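Quick question, first post here. What does this chain look like in 3D?
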Amino acid sequence: MSDEQQQPGALSVGLFVLSLFVAVGIQSVLPGALAGAGVGAPDLVLVLVLVAALLTDAGTGALIGFAGGLLTAAVVGETVGTFLVTRSVAAFAAGSLAGRFFRTNGAVVVLAVVAGSSVAEALYGLAAPPLKAVTLAGYLRNAGFSVLWNAALALPAAWLLRRFGWGEGRR
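> Answer (accepted):
Ran it through. Tokens below.
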């Protein structure tokens, strides 16, 4: 591993884990508040996972995605395997972009979160289709709004993780 791809330090990882737990706490309340509005809901854990993966590499991204999927599944309480797989694949994809793009560029961060969120939503919809009275159009509308929410939160998440020491010494 070159100096350009050094991994975050223990303090950075600890702060990231703390921010994941805060995101899980907020996320466990937020979708209920937005459910009646029909505007989807942000996936705070997924946003943090995707940005962290973008600021590291593919292997670390997959591990971060697995941890994020496990936390999300613990809160949701259903489709544990689906959350693990979708988050791991999405974070692996975001981490794969790390060596190809100027990953601290705001546009790259937002596009990576849009792409990763879209991959996670598509895989989740295929692996665990909603069994309630939800039409495909309704699912796609909610997924689209969730992707937009995640895109809006991408830059604040990147700013937070950079303050925690993620992405230092990288292009």
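The two ends are 15 Å apart (CA to CA).
The longest helix spans residues 136-163.
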